[in-house]
Amino acid sequence: MPKPKKVSSKKAKQARSAKLLQQLAALPVRPTPEGDLEVLLVTSRETRRWIVPKGWPMKGRKPHRSAALEACEEAGVIGRIGKTPAGFYTYAKRLPDGGVLPCRVAVYCLTVTKQLATWPEKGQRDVQWVSSEAAAVLVDEPELADLIRELARAAVTAHGQAPPAAS
Known about the structure:
By secondary structure, this protein is an alpha+beta fold. The chain has one domain: Alpha-Beta Complex (Nucleoside Triphosphate Pyrophosphohydrolase), CATH 3.90.79.10. Helices cover 27% and strands 34% of the residues. The chain contains 4 helices and 8 strands. Strands 1, 2, 3, 4, 5, 6, 7 and 8 form an 8-stranded mixed beta sheet that branches. Helix 3 runs antiparallel to helix 4. It is globular, with a radius of gyration of 17 Å. The termini are far apart.
């Protein structure tokens, strides 16, 4: 049996000894005039998949503040962020050596109030506002897609409209 590949990343080494690596994400949203919800997605730098802004917990910062900072750095958006996670999803983090690690991501809803003209990762990622249903289809992670759909139903219900029919 071949030996497992060595990983140079300290976080990756720690994560392999733990069950799940913990990350934080912001789900940037804005209401439409019709009471629906739009979601801002970004592409990952490596694979160019559609994702939500996410990253590692930051020492000295509350988790929701770290998620808000990721949204500003990766997507150029600022807004009101929830203090508790709206939900969680898991995904397989791809490592430079070809390995993967299971990650659990706490997702904080960020109601966008401002979109900046420039931000640190502009040009490294594409950003796109899409309907909540389009966002759910574009992301690869089924748990994240379900969370987006749940938040959209809650937003529509809060505006006094009937939630969309379940598929």
